[in-house]
Specification:
There is one protein chain. The protein has about 300 residues and is mainly beta. About 0% of the residues lie in helices and about 50% in strands. It folds into 3 domains: about 1-40, no CATH class; about 45-170, Immunoglobulin-like (Sandwich); about 175-285, Sandwich (Immunoglobulin-like), CATH 2.60.40. It has no helices and 27 strands. The strands form 7 sheets. The protein has a 6-stranded mixed β-sheet, with no helix packed on it. A hairpin with a 5-residue loop joins strand 23 and strand 24.
């Protein structure tokens, strides 16, 4: 019997016995025929053994996806791996920084990044970066195509799976507008011209609180709560139109700072993140001379002596 990767050459032999019971002269004969048994290849589905990844917003996340071949006789191989469902604005790259082209939310992974030993395979160093400033979790589709070949004919099989990507929120620093202010004493309400805004505009971030520190006892703010230690606590809305009033005839340079507290809410993972951003500014109050008040006194008797 001859064997090849594609077929088996087989021989069937039939042996015949003609038994002569009364004469005792049995006779035998045989006849043989050959036939070919052709085994057509049939690719098997792969089994996914890892399908989740996690990382931080605005960072590269290792996908860490792996799978196993069902047929391990050496006739099957992986021919292609494709990722789909890639969010708009997301990026893919290899571990060395080589970009992977994304078209219409799909990307074909270079086979150099699919490593294995003929049985177990993984995406070696394939990374995804979520859309900018997004902490939304998402799922990627993965399609693995295997080929089973017997050297003459071949068969292919595509297996689909899912890679779940969990993205942790990362709060961005607020943008604070705070410039130095100069006024004269007795100027009344002095506009501080303070403003703060979030840098992440996807809707997940918000400014939750404002602190102003370095406020002397002689300065009163038009809104907020005086904490008694030189700091004031405000809501974000109270920052708009905020003024300072200096008590009495006080002048000098006051070093102050404004701090914005930002919350990045992660609704699907529950891992909220916060950050505080501070900017310094000075309030300079220049002295202003007060006018001299002269009161006319009543005439008084004058005594002169020594006049000649």
């Amino acid at each position: 019997m001859a064997m090849s990767p594609a077929s088996l050459e087989m021989t069937v032999t039939a042996h015949v016995l003609d038994s002569d019971s009364d004469a005792g002269g049995d006779d035998t004969s045989s006849v043989s025929t050959q036939f070919t048994l052709t085994v057509d290849p049939e690719a098997d589905e792969v089994t996914f053994t890892a399908g989740s990844a996690s990382g931080a917003e605005d960072s590269w996340i290792d996908l860490n996806s792996s799978f196993q071949l069902s047929d391990t006789d050496g006739s099957e191989s992986v021919s292609s791996v494709t990722l789909s469902g890639i969010p708009d604005g997301a990026e893919l790259q290899l571990a060395d920084g080589t970009a992977i082209t994304v078209t219409g939310g799909s990307a074909e992974i270079p086979m150099s990044a699919v490593t294995g030993d003929g049985e177990s395979y993984s995406l070696d160093g394939v990374q995804v970066k979520p859309p900018a400033d997004s902490n939304e979790n998402f799922a990627l589709g993965i399609d693995v195509t295997t080929v089973d070949s017997n050297g003459v004919t071949s068969d292919s099989q595509q297996t689909s799976g899912t890679i779940s990507v969990e993205v942790a929120s990362v709060a961005d620093e607020a943008t604070i507008d705070a410039g130095d202010i100069t006024a004269t004493e007795d100027a009344g309400a002095i506009a501080l011209n303070l403003d703060a805004a979030v840098g992440d505009t996807d809707g997940s971030e918000s400014i939750t609180a404002i602190d102003i520190s370095g406020v002397p006892d002689t300065v009163q703010l038009s809104a907020g709560t005086d904490n008694g230690d030189g700091s004031w606590s405000l809501t974000p809305d109270q920052l708009q139109g905020l003024t300072a009033t200096v008590d009495g005839d006080v002048s000098g340079v006051f070093d102050m700072s404004v701090t914005a507290h930002v919350l990045d809410a992660d609704s699907d993972s529950g891992g909220d993140d916060t950050i505080a951003t501070t900017k310094d500014f000075t309030l300079t109050i220049n002295p202003e001379a007060d006018g001299v008040s002269i009161t006319e006194a009543a005439p008084a008797a004058m005594r002169m002596s020594g006049l000649r």
